[in-house]
């Protein structure tokens, strides 16, 4: 293999994938987000190298644009963060680079938040859980844009000031997908449809919440996984990444 | 029929656009991001789409009555009036409020210049350059790096020093590569974009719904925005370049786009496309009707 893999993150999935790839002879740079500002990187139109190694595949378990570059003075950190984020986004889009998950510019700069995916799923005719926006009631709960964790409906002044997303049906379940496969029980049809659609767009690992009608409520493309879930997902990713690097 | 100016309503382009819209006989609502919840609010429902309403004081405007929306956001908006928050809470509020405005602009059934989802590759110059090159534009050779040796190798063989600039979309000065940058790289710094310097003139091409308006700028240095300029004048765009600009703007969902070029001996080198172009200096210097072209685009869509 003439290229290395990068695993960014240190959760159970990152660790298992790193171990598995190394066992297959892949050179893996296992990194944490806070290390990114310290790395020597070079990006050309057709190649990305980190610490002098040509990179052919990346597993992102942290957002490369969401780290605090503490090695830089506080006044510079915002700019350094934007520069690193822009560099890594471009690297993930190179031809011949396999990235799990590959996010396009909009998803990347929106922090991969659920509203981006919800809008795309709706455009793709996937059944999404209905929402009201702004000062509309009644509703079952507030679904904040930034984390998607349902909360009680806030007061009217807050609804008006934030343009809140208000859900009419609370979430009743969660489904995890990896490389097109449901991990665990078979989820509602709309969730399967959503997983297939996002998989075609480069999102290989995602968790979906859904409401009682089986409509997709939120999408998380950096889902926290239990150790058991990581055990099921890691072999799929190892096979995918190894196969890609072997064929390069 | 109503036109809205959304986001940073004090921005010069926003102010001018509102004035131009009023002059053209439209009713204009200035919907400032920081005033959301104070002077204005919105409400809509998936189940009633595309219906919705904007409330501005005592006025209620249905989405269906909007001719178009001009959106321009400040990088660091403040809190609502008379609300004091610590920096963490303010950051969370601003993120939530901005996401709410993105939902609004995404769902409005009228033309929007521009929707927040459009032209996002501008946040990463190397990504955008790859897109522009694939679209058919000629791009100056580039490298993104924080490795002194790699940059030195890139410079070798060039007739004159390249320029360097920010990798991201934040406004930053373009400079010639010098020993100071190489010293900083040796000490450790974030990656920069190093690019072959193209002599010649700068040309800004504004594209609005298939129409190109170009301005040539004779600058005094490498970056006329910071180094000064001697003249702004209207410029002819070759048909091929105009066609490429229009195609990229349409594909990126940009009702208004600002393409930057360096033109050297009739060769057009594309530098970037801006999804939120500051068109005022070009319009005022040349009389080219950029804002009015956006209004025409709104009318055509209606």
Quaternary structure classification: heterodimer
Counting DSSP H or I runs of 4 or more residues, the number of helices of chain B is 9
Number of helix segments of chain A? 7
What structural category characterises the helix and strand content of chain B? Answer: alpha+beta
Set down the secondary structure blueprint.
The complex is a heterodimer of chains A (248) and B (302).
Chain A (H helix, E strand, L loop, with lengths): L3 E5 L3 H12 L4 E4 L9 E4 L2 E4 L2 E8 L13 H19 L5 E3 L4 H5 L4 H10 L7 E4 L6 E2 L13 H7 L2 E3 L3 E8 L2 E3 L5 H12 L4 E7 L4 E5 L6 H21 L1
Parallel strand pairs in A: 1-2, 1-5, 5-6
Antiparallel strand pairs in A: 3-4, 4-5, 7-9, 8-9, 10-11, 10-12, 12-13
Chain B lengths: L1 E6 L4 H12 L3 E6 L7 E6 L6 E5 L2 E4 L3 E7 L14 H21 L4 E2 L11 H11 L6 E4 L2 H8 L7 E3 L9 E2 L2 H9 L4 E4 L5 E8 L2 E9 L4 H4 L1 E7 L3 H13 L4 E9 L2 E8 L5 H7 L3 H12 L1
Description:
The complex is a heterodimer of chains A (248) and B (302). With 248 residues, chain A is an alpha+beta fold. Chain A has seven helices and 13 strands. Chain A folds into two domains: 4-102 and 229-246; 109-224, no CATH class. In chain A, strands 1, 2, 3, 4, 5 and 6 form a six-stranded mixed β-sheet that branches. Chain A has a four-stranded antiparallel β-sheet with strand order 11-10-12-13, with helices on both faces. Chain A has a three-stranded antiparallel β-sheet with strand order 7-9-8. The mean pLDDT of chain A is 93. By secondary structure, chain B is an alpha+beta fold. Chain B has three domains: 2-110, Rossmann fold (3-Layer(aba) Sandwich), CATH 3.40.50; 141-195, Dna Ligase, domain 1, CATH 3.30.1490; 198-288, D-amino Acid Aminotransferase, Chain A, domain 1 (2-Layer Sandwich). In chain B, the strands form four sheets. Chain B has a five-stranded antiparallel β-sheet with strand order 14-13-12-15-16, sandwiched between helices. In chain B, strands 2-1-6-7 form a four-stranded parallel β-sheet, with helices on one face. In chain B, strands 8-11-9-10 form a four-stranded antiparallel β-sheet, covered by helices on one side. Chain B is globular. The N and C termini of chain B lie close together (11 Å). Chains A and B meet through strand 3, helix 2, helix 3, helix 4 and strand 7 of A and strand 3, helix 2, helix 3 and strand 8 of B. Strand 3 of chain A pairs antiparallel with strand 8 of chain B, so a sheet runs across the interface.
